[in-house]
Amino acid sequence: MTELYTITSVAGLKEIAGEWAELARRAGGSLFRGPEWLLPWWHEYHRVLAAELRVEIATDGGRLVALAPFYARVGKRRPGLKLKEIRLLGDAGPRPPALDLLVEPGYEEEVGAQLAERLGASADEWDVIDLQPLQEPSRARAFMTNRLGAAGFQVESGEAGTSRRLALTVPGAEASAALPDARVRRYTDEVGSLRKGMAALRRLTRLEWADREEQSPLADPESQALLEHVTLELGRAGRARFARLDDADNEAIAAALVIDDGDRAVVLASAIDPQQPGAAARLLEAEAREAASRGRLSSTW
Predict the structure, then answer these.
(1) CB–CB of 27/105 below 8 Å?
(2) What are 300's strand-pairing partners?
(3) Among the three residues 139, 160, 181, which one is the final residue of a domain in this structure?
(4) Radius of gyration for the chain, computed over Cα atoms and rounded to the nearest angstrom
(5) Do 139 and 226 fall within a single domain?
(6) Domain of 16, in residue numbers
(7) Do residues 299 and 260 touch, judged by C-beta distance below 8 A?
């Protein structure tokens, strides 16, 4: 029989960080659902979001078997309408393809039912549960949302926005032929080298989004601080790298931040020169091949 507890402080999360990381490995091996990503994310974003931690954990005989990385905030849905929301840690700024409840296999139904009961009993504390972006269907989330839906609650859930998800796959041959003089440059574990990669990514992000009405998800200071912290930490361990595609004049026309997460290579952030539409395909083709040479599967952003 599992027991459910609520953690509302960073100190409480740090106390279980080791167990949390181990649970992430048992439940699918995702860096982005563990403390290495979500604790730095919280440090950078909780103030600007005016967010409060509401992380639900489940234990069985004292062993951590589930963690629902929720936070609460008041959000504006339209002018004059403010709603109390429950959301997922990691859903602002650079959004990786792995946000979800973290549940050890075999506990999905029990934990999903317990979360639904807990959330239903505290319905006066929230107006909407907004679980986005999500990578794929999960059994625990399905059990939770189905029970809340049957009880008459509004639960918003869905896949991660496709505009923010980018496949790291090998495209057709025509992409390679589009830029015959371009070459790929990579920055790996050296701090100064990684900072050069970040500078190229920031410059290209400004170019790519210059004519758009909305702001790039990589432009705000919280996003930049988060990416720098995580990149340097993982880069020292050989798990982060920047790749950039240079034109014939050695100017960067595409850049991507690639994170190794277990056996996957995840493109966490990318940007291109809008005047070079073929650059993204060329760079991602090269990175897919490079990931394969390191025994990594290509993944998504």
Answers:
(1) yes
(2) 167
(3) 160
(4) 20
(5) no
(6) 3-160
(7) no
> Nearest to residue 4, comparing CAs of 98, 163, 119, 95?
119
Per-residue confidence band for 103, with pLDDT thresholds at 50, 70 and 90: very high
Residue 247: inside a domain, yes or no? yes
Same domain? 156 vs 9: yes
User: Where are the strands (E) in the chain, listed by range?
Assistant: 3-7, 52-53, 55-60, 63-68, 70-78, 81-88, 102-103, 128-134, 155-159, 183-187, 240-246, 252-261, 264-272, 297-298
Question: 152: left (phi > 0), else alpha (psi -120 to 50), else beta?
Answer: left
Quick check: 193 and 152 in contact, CB under 8 A? Answer: no
Number of domains in the chain: 2
Q: Quick one: angle between helices 191-209 and 221-236, nearest 10?
A: 150
63 and 156 together in one domain: yes
Same domain, 137 and 197: no
Question: Looking at the structure, do residues 124 and 36 belong to the same domain, yes or no?
Answer: yes
Which residue carries 């997460």 as its tokens?
A: 261
Has residue 213 got a pLDDT over 80? no
pTM: 0.69
Rounded Cα distance between 104 and 75, Å, is 31
Residue 247, Cα to own-chain centre: how many angstroms? 30
Query: Could you tell me if 239 and 286 lie in one domain?
Result: yes
Q: Could you tell me the CA-to-CA distances from 57 to 66, 135, 227 in Å, in that order?
A: 6, 21, 27
Tokens 């034109």, residue located: 247
Whether residue 168 lies inside any domain: the answer is no
Give rounded-to-5 percent helix, strand, coil for the chain.
40, 30, 30
When pLDDT is averaged across residues 37-61 and rounded to a whole number, the result is: 95
- Per the domain annotation, does 166 fall within a domain? no
